[in-house]
Design goal:
- The complex is a heterodimer.
- Chain A is of the alpha/beta class.
- Chain A has 7 helices and 7 strands, in the order αβαβββαβαββααα.
- The longest helix of chain A is centred in the first third of the chain and has 18 residues.
- Chain B contains 4 helices and 7 strands.
- In chain B, the strands form 2 sheets. Chain B has a 5-stranded mixed sheet, covered by helices on one side. A two-stranded parallel sheet of chain B has the order 6-7.
- By secondary structure, chain B is an alpha/beta fold.
- In chain B, strand 3 and strand 4 form a beta hairpin.
- Classes of the chains: A alpha/beta, B alpha/beta.
- At the A-B interface, helix 3, strand 6 and helix 7 of A face helix 4 of B.
């Protein structure tokens, strides 16, 4: 039994080590944040050298990159997209809008904190974050995955009721 | 161009600049004015929106129409009372007015007669408060009450 547990742990560690080298990214570009993505993924900064490539469907993506503000209409779609993704899945909050509302802190439609509604693994601060900052965020996520600390999706499963309650408060489901 | 407009429009016509003409009409003549302007080659509706004049207890409905042929913009304005506001639809004149009218209903609470989607939620799903673009709606208060903020102190130098 102990041997099997040890083997399983080692197996997960090896998987994590390999997994961090091939992350497919689904960008949820709500706003100005989409501007920094083309230089990040094209030849100048070239995110693909880290194994991070943009992808088009939620079912086959690993990272959900939320760029910019999230309002009450897009939050509902964002939750649907997040729940469609297969685990392991990671969420990156991009820009100050996802951290504390940014310049939309007094808006009637913008939710201020993304981590109340979705489990965010890494935040990239800035308005806007430069491509270097985005790459640094990706590298941080890769490091967390390697160490087995990027457990946002497990947190979401374990605290499902907490997240649903927060979502219901805003979306009035 | 002003003379031609004056001939077909019932209301006040002001020429601000050669390419900006302001037409102020009564509420009943709003749709018919735009219909007449469309016949005068004003074939594009650029904007349909409202302005809240809370002190006068009125909404001003503003429509911007543009003539590609004459390169002239005409601004058509009308005032409606602020209590139980209603206007006629423009979708049979300018089809792109459809979403602008939905926005009028959502953001100002103005009911558009003849538009099937009027007063249906478009951006603000599940909204239960005052329409947000009215002047008596307090955006900061609403945001603080409904959306939880991060509890940190920011220090500036």
């Amino acid at each position: 039994m102990e041997l099997q547990e040890t083997l399983e742990e080692g197996y997960v560690e090896i998987l994590d080590h390999l997994r961090k080298r091939s992350l497919w990214m689904l960008q949820y570009c709500t706003a100005c944040g989409a501007m920094e993505i083309p230089p990040t993924i094209t030849s100048r900064f070239d995110a693909e050298r880290f194994g991070i490539a943009p992808f088009v469907t939620s079912r086959q993506s690993d990272i959900l990159l939320v760029t910019g503000y999230v309002n009450i209409k897009t939050l509902r779609r964002l939750i649907t997209v997040y729940e469609q993704m297969l685990p392991p899945k990671y969420v990156i909050g991009f820009g100050s809008c996802t951290i504390n509302g940014g310049i939309y802190w007094d808006s009637y439609a913008i939710v201020k904190r993304l981590d109340l509604y979705l489990p965010v693994d890494v935040y990239i601060a800035g308005c806007m974050p430069t491509p270097m900052a985005v790459l640094e965020g990706f590298r941080t996520l890769m490091k967390l995955i390697d160490e087995g600390k990027a457990n946002g999706w497990k947190k979401y499963q374990e605290n499902y009721e907490y997240y649903k309650e927060n979502q219901r408060k805003v979306l009035k489901w | 161009m002003v003379e031609e407009i004056k001939r077909v429009v019932v209301g006040e016509v002001v020429e601000k600049r050669p390419q900006r003409i302001i037409v102020k009409v009564e509420k009943e003549n709003f749709a018919s004015t735009l219909n007449a302007l469309k016949a005068l080659s004003f074939n594009r509706l650029n904007l349909l929106t409202a302005v809240d004049f809370i002190k006068e207890n009125q909404f001003e409905i503003v429509a911007l129409v543009y003539s590609d042929e004459k390169k002239v913009m005409t601004i058509v304005k009308t005032r409606i009372p602020r209590d139980n506001p209603e206007i006629e639809t423009l979708i049979h004149i300018y089809p792109n007015a459809f979403k602008y009218e939905v926005e009028l209903g959502e953001m100002f609470g103005i009911r558009v007669i003849g538009n099937p989607d009027s007063m249906k939620p478009f951006v603000l799903e599940g909204w239960g408060d005052l329409p947000p673009l009215r002047k008596d709606f307090d955006s900061i208060k609403y945001a603080t009450e409904h959306y939880e903020s991060r509890n940190v102190e920011v220090k500036y130098d």
